[in-house]
Structure formats: structure tokens, C-alpha cells
Amino acid sequence: MKELFPAWREGDPYLQYPNLRVQSFGGSTSYILNKNFSARTIYTQGEWQKKSSGSWVPFLDYDLTIFRNTIDDQSAKEMQYKIGANIGYFYNWVLGKNVNISPYLALGLGGKFSNFWNVKGDGSRDNAQYLTLRMEGGLHIGYNTDRFLFGGKMNFSAYTYQQTRNQAVENNSMYGLLYIGYRFAPPRVVKDTYDKVQKKIPIL
């Protein structure tokens, strides 16, 4: 708030946008360079890595964010496209038969493309492009047995770009996740079908 209103003090009301609507769609595509490293152990618990191993993982991240807002009966819309190329190192440290500890750190460089226009105003439209820098990392600790699993994750992400010559924008976030689960044996017909498909498509 102080960046927008220098006279603002703690306890004063915050600037609010009650009509602001944000929609975001995104994803990432990666390639694991070490065939002995299992990313599924970390992300889906769909595999069980038995020996410690790590890998460099190059990946692309991309997303589309749409902002809609109405101020003084005037509608505005902004679309932001982001794409980045990243490289990170992931490691699965296996302790005993059931515990794995998995840290990772990644750095990336990309671009952000923004289109803004007044829907009900004069129809003016502004375009902007920015070079983006990104860093992310995290730690996953999990416990696995044939039927029971639980664990936790802590991830952080730091994202920045130079909006003007003297102004940089930063977007930093951190989040955690706790999970607990139980694996039920699949129905015979499902298992047989999956085994047949996996023989023909080993990547599944």
C-alpha cells in the first residue's frame, strides 16, 4: 500500500477491488535426464525408488491468466501469457526401505506478455513484454509401504521482472502440503487391462 499511497499507515483501510475476477490456466513439461531417477516417487507416489538417485531436469512452464475488473462502471480486461525455460536438480535420498527425502532447486528464464484494454471505454489497448527470472525449490519427505503412505511437502517460488527502468515486480510464494493415504488392491479386470496396455505402451 505504501508504494501506491506513501501516506498510508498500518490500520488504515486497504485498497480493494470487489469486482476483480482472476482465471489462471497453466502447466509444465519436463524431461528427466537420469533414467534411474523416479519423479513419480515424489509427485504421485506411483513408484517406489529403492536406491538413492538424482537427476538434472530441464522443463518448460507456461500459463495464461485473465483479469477482469469493473471500476466506476467501466470494465477492463487484461490477459497475461507467461512461458519460461528452467533447469533444476532433483534428488531422492532413500533411507531404509520406506522413507525418502527429496530436495530440489530450479532456476529459470522466460518472458511475460500482457494485453490490456478497456471493454466499455474508448477501446484503447496496451501491450507489454517483460523478461522474467524465476527460482523455485522444495523439500518432500515421505513414508511408503505396500498399502500405507504419508508425508509432507514444502515448496517456494520466487518470480521477478523489471516493469519500468526504476521499478521491479516480485511475486514470492510458499506453500505446504500434508498427505496420508491407503492403497486398495485394484479390481482384477482393471489390473489385467492396465498390464496389457503397459506392455504395448511402456511409458505408462
Helix and strand element order = EHEEEEEEH
The number of helical elements comes to 2
- How far is it from the N-terminal to the C-terminal residue, by CA? 49 Å
Helix content: under 10%
- Class based on secondary structure composition and strand pairing: mainly beta
How is the largest sheet built, in terms of strand order?
1-2-3-4-5-6-7
**Overall 3D form:** elongated
Q: Point out poorly predicted stretches.
A: none
- Report the major sheet: 7 strands, antiparallel
Descriptive overview:
- The chain is mainly β and 204 residues long.
- It contains 2 helices and 7 strands.
- It has a 7-stranded antiparallel beta sheet, with no helix packed on it.
- The longest helix has 13 residues, at 188-200.
- It is elongated, with a radius of gyration of 23 Å.
Which terms would index this structure?
about 200 residues; mainly beta; 7-stranded antiparallel beta sheet; 2 helices; elongated
Please specify the SSE layout and strand pairing.
Elements lengths: L20 E10 L9 H4 L9 E19 L2 E22 L3 E20 L6 E20 L3 E17 L2 E16 L5 H13 L4
